[in-house]
Specification:
about 250 residues; alpha/beta; Rossmann fold; seven-stranded parallel sheet; two-stranded parallel ribbon; 8 helices; 9 strands; about 40% helix
């Protein structure tokens, strides 16, 4: 399959790209910092794109038109959170960056991809990276939670719009995943980022990548519409239980 993945230079996106590439798929990887990662040289197209910027999204579809004509899978993974304070404390710039990246970027890339999938007519798949935070809000996470709730509703609407087209839509909704996500949220404060994962066993990026691969490998008549996955020690979007066992 030909797979377009956003946010491939770190975390879940990178693990997913590497896993699917190893399984024999051709990857169009979209990211902002290819200088810090080692990626395959064959069957892997690197596209240096910030999905929050309209002109860069436009350029992606112009320069990769041949790939898009054969695109079977879109994985909208790029996303971020900024800060962990009260909603009124967040700046307009933070609001804009989160919404432009998590919501508008994903929506626009999806909008531009669907016509290619309809045109080639093969069974296709769209996967959006949601979150348990898109289903249950938590204090001081209002902006991020709202952005992920929008993604869950995007998938729900697309399921109806695309019924009968052979294009399946799924939202992956992970809980706490240990990646550099918290480093971005806390603006490089490594100690604070590390503390977010202390005292329990969070998910790893590869756990989520394996789930994505499983969704893709279902038969064409099977549509996994949503997959929620939490660490065993996580009870919901807010609460985790300290490890009390080996």
């Amino acid at each position: 399959m030909n797979v377009l993945i956003t946010g491939v230079t770190s975390g879940i996106g990178r693990e997913t790209a590497m896993l699917l590439h190893a399984a024999g798929h051709t990857i169009l990887g979209v990211g902002r910092d290819f200088g810090k990662v080692s990626l395959p040289k064959t069957r892997f197209i690197q596209a240096n794109v910030d999905v929050s910027k309209e002109k860069e999204r436009e350029a992606l579809f112009e320069t990769q038109a041949n790939f898009m004509k054969e695109c079977d899978v879109l994985i909208n993974n790029a996303g971020l959170a900024l800060g962990l304070g009260s909603f009124e404390e967040q700046t307009y710039e933070e609001l804009s960056q989160v919404i432009l990246t998590n919501v508008l970027g994903a929506m626009d890339i999806t909008r531009r991809t669907i016509p290619f999938m309809r045109a080639h007519g093969r069974p296709s798949q769209i996967i959006h990276m949601g979150s348990i935070a898109g289903k249950q809000a938590y204090a001081k996470g209002t902006l991020y939670c709202a952005s992920k709730a929008a993604i869950h509703m995007l998938s729900d609407g697309l399921k109806r719009d695309l019924a009968g087209s052979g294009i399946r839509v799924c939202t992956i909704a992970p809980g706490k995943v240990e990646t550099d996500f918290s480093m971005t949220r806390f603006k490089g404060d490594a100690a604070r980022a590390k503390k977010a994962y202390e005292g329990y066993r969070p998910l790893k990026a590869l756990d989520v990548a394996n789930a994505i691969q499983w969704v893709l490998e279902r038969p064409a008549h099977v549509e996994i519409t949503e997959l929620t996955m939490l660490a065993t020690d996580q009870m919901d979007a807010v609460n985790v239980s300290p490890v009390r066992h080996a």
